[in-house]
Design a protein that fits this description.
With 164 residues, the chain is α+β, with helices and mostly antiparallel strands. 28% of the residues lie in helices and 33% in strands. The protein has 4 helices and 8 strands. It has helices spanning 23-31, 49-59, 106-122, 136-144, and strands at residues 3-5, 13-17, 60-68, 77-85, 90-97, 126-132, 148-153, 156-162. The chain has an 8-stranded mixed beta sheet with strand order 1-2-3-4-5-6-8-7. Strand 3 (60-68) and strand 4 form a beta hairpin. Helix 1 (23-31) crosses helix 2 (49-59). It starts with a strand and ends with a strand.
Length: 164
C-alpha cells in the first residue's frame, strides 16, 4: 500500500510510504531546516539525511510520511509500525508531527489508518506505544486513543491497546 488517504469528511490526510527519495524532508522533521540539504552529519545521529532515512527504514515494518490533502507535497509528520512480534501478535506504533499541526486531529487520523493496516496486514492483537515520562502531550494522546499504561523502562512509559 503505497498511499493511504483518510476517509470521510473529517481531517483529510495522506500517508505515503517513505523511501530514500524522501530523505531530505524526513530528516527535516527530526533535525530542522538548518541541517537538511547540507552534506554533513548531525551531532545527535552522526548521519546525513540519506543515512538517517535508511537507518529508520531498516527498523520499521511500515514507515509513512504524513501530508495534508490540501498540500500533499509537504511532509508534516511521520508514523510507523515497528518491532513486530509475530508470536505475540504485537507491534509498536509511533510517530511525530510538526508542532504547528498539533491539536488538529491529524495524528489521530494517521494512527487510525495505521491501526487499520496493522490489523489487516499483520493481524495484530496488541499495539504498543512508548514515550518519555515527561512527554505529557503524547501520554494524553495515547490514552485518548485507548492505550493503557503497562509499565516503565527507565524514563520511557510503555502503553498497550488491544485491537482484536
Amino acid at each position: 500500500m503505497e498511499v493511504m488517504k483518510s476517509p470521510g469528511d473529517r481531517i483529510k490526510i495522506i500517508l505515503k510510504k517513505i523511501s530514500v527519495k524522501d530523505s531530505e524532508s524526513f530528516y527535516r522533521l527530526y533535525f530542522g531546516d538548518e541541517s537538511a540539504g547540507q552534506d554533513r552529519t548531525t551531532d545527535e545521529e552522526h548521519m546525513n539525511p540519506v543515512q538517517f532515512t535508511e537507518h529508520i527504514l531498516s527498523l520499521c515494518e511500515e514507515l509513512y510520511s504524513i501530508r495534508t490533502v490540501e498540500n500533499e507535497n509537504i511532509v508534516i509528520g511521520d508514523c510507523a509500525l515497528h518491532h513486530w512480534n509475530q508470536e505475540e501478535k504485537k507491534i509498536e506504533i509511533g510517530g511525530s508531527l510538526l508542532p504547528e499541526y498539533w491539536g488538529k486531529g491529524i495524528m489521530s487520523a494517521a494512527f487510525e489508518l495505521l491501526i487499520a493496516l496493522a490489523k489487516e496486514k499483520y493481524q495484530v492483537n496488541i499495539l504498543v506505544a512508548k514515550t518519555e515520562i515527561s512527554n505529557l502531550k503524547a501520554l494524553k494522546f495515547a490514552e485518548k486513543l485507548g492505550f493503557q499504561k503497562m509499565g516503565n523502562e527507565g524514563d520511557i512509559i510503555i502503553l498497550e491497546k488491544r485491537v482484536s
